[in-house]
Amino acid sequence: MKARLLIDRDFRVGTIDSRMYGSFIEHLGRAVYGGIYEPGHPSADERGFRRDVLALVRELGVPLVRYPGGNFVCSFDWEDSVGPAEKRPRRLDLAWRSVEPNSFGLNEFMAWASQAGAEPMMALNLGTRGTDAARNLVEYCNHPGGSYWSDLRISHGVREPHNIKLWCLGNEMDGPWQIGQKTADEYGRLAYDAAKAIRRIDPKVELVACGSSMAALPTFPDWEAAVLDRCYDEVDYLSLHSYYGNKADDLPEYLADSVGMGEFIDSVSSACDFAKAKKRSRKTMMLSFDEWNVWFHTGADDMHLAPWTVGPPLLEDAYTFEDALVVGCLLITLLKHTDRVKIACLAQLINVIAPISTANGGPAWRQTIFYPFLHASRYGHGVSMDIRVDSPAYESKRFGPVPYLDAAAAVDEDAGEMAVFAVNRSLSESVEAEMRLGGYESWSVVERIELAGADPKAVNTSARPETVSPRRVDGGASVEGGVLRTSLAPLSWNVIRLESARRSSR
Ligand code: AHR
User: What whole-number distance in Å separates Cα of residue 369 and Cα of residue 468?
Assistant: First the structure.
């Protein structure tokens, strides 16, 4: 089948904030214990950080990591996680029914994130706790010294403040599963109060208020409007969370999930704009999609399997090739919404619904979903273009016509680089694509990469870590007369990289 695409230098969606390629480490399952931290592992450094995992995290290119939860944070006392490790208490983590030994805590995370090349996004407990614990944590982290909490940090061996910029005001506060669940009015009031206190300590912080935990909850989207009615002026972003899955084993329908993601972003933007209008505000609320991924191979009920142990194997989804294609479509959707989505976190990073898996005492490997994320974080920079796609479509039960070809384009004019990301959703037919490069007629193809040809249910394992991996396609795309032509295999994720004439002549 044939498809036509168009970009034009003058039509752009928005600047791509590199924090759109963030991820998430929660004290959950083996994300921390047996994931990033495993003293005694052959690759562990003197602090117990697994070097093999750090190398994969750096390769993946994650500029932002959200921490320490998730549901975990809503009954977590941060004070337990600092100071001499041997004095830290073992606590029951009520969110995941595990034991939290607190041997890896706040200052360890900050050291790990710096080695991973990532900025922290710190979540505050607004479940069992409130403004007081939040303001103390911000003082501990960001105040230079000369006060109780900042001096405590210094006494813990951390002389310079962490200067953490990005803070989440709680997590999924409308969720019936949440310890400390709140009504929109209760939460909006608390977010307002906590934000006010935090900003007095550090006016440079950026604050994220909780949106609904998921679009399916009956509180959506009234929650968004009611929460923002209370705290619109005090916060910088509203959060979105969404997970996708092929529960009915219907691949075309599953590949259409990204359409739902786009509609969700549009609805949340509308709810924010309603609050803006009501407030007569000049400020447009930006979005933080700080939990997104495929998650359905395992469920949150896992937490009852090995209760009250340290680092139990929870939510360890083994991702298939079809999951990687869906993650590719979700990345394309995020890129098409960069006017509103400035922060996004693939949930999560290691072992727990993650692109990187480890065996305790054994190897670390790349899951199938590692690759589309790696390509987007490595090449999806600059400005997201307002791409037009004219493609044959199929009928989805939920979304009506869904184009077989899904695509986004990112252009970094300073670097002279462009990346086109495309998924062919057809199970059987190639797409012969022609893309008109308005304003970029002289650019040429540098590289074409594809993830294709695998069994949709294929997974990568420690024994066969490369079953699903990308390949470079030589001569698979070319530009002539300002038109990029390429053929996209059925069920494929594709990256076509171009460069400007100026760059190629260097
Ligand atoms: O990412 C797993 C869990 O999903 C998080 O703890 C929670 O915020 C969400 O419900």
Answer: 9
